[in-house]
């Protein structure tokens, strides 16, 4: 019950791009958190995007993809359980990051003022922790997950099962700064790779892609310290 070659490749592309978006987002949060010129609102948006999307990514693997594989290949259970333990370690770092108060003070015009030096230091330290965890998870995925997951997708998961999994992931992705996902994907992959991921998006979302890309570009410029 082998998967078609193109679907096998697509699974690898989607996994790699998902990991790379997480690496880009965590690295940017570390950098932006160290610049006092970046507004609190921009930092909070990036932080919230990162926290919910990282959680969603590994929770969908644990809850949906791993059981499919184990049902077809019980001998993979131990290795997949080890990958889930890595996800649990990441959760503690995400909890720390999510707990940081990024509301900031506001002036009479409603604009966020700079965070205190202490708050920015706490944000940066938490973001560094998450970045390092993500880096380790990505490395572990490359060294541990691919030799398990890719053969399992070829041998045990049908194209219909993979399509259902991918659609469930899309349908349950939290609607938190989704435009940033589009922006990071554009940076992480080739146009063809990104298109292959976005082609199954709901039509209303696909119609909004130009606006989402424009908004992402503007917000990423702010986070990187360039508003031009």
TrEMBL record:
InterPro entries: Hemerythrin-like. Residues 29-153 form the Hemerythrin-like domain. Pfam families: Hemerythrin. This is Hemerythrin domain-containing protein. It comes from Streptomyces bluensis.
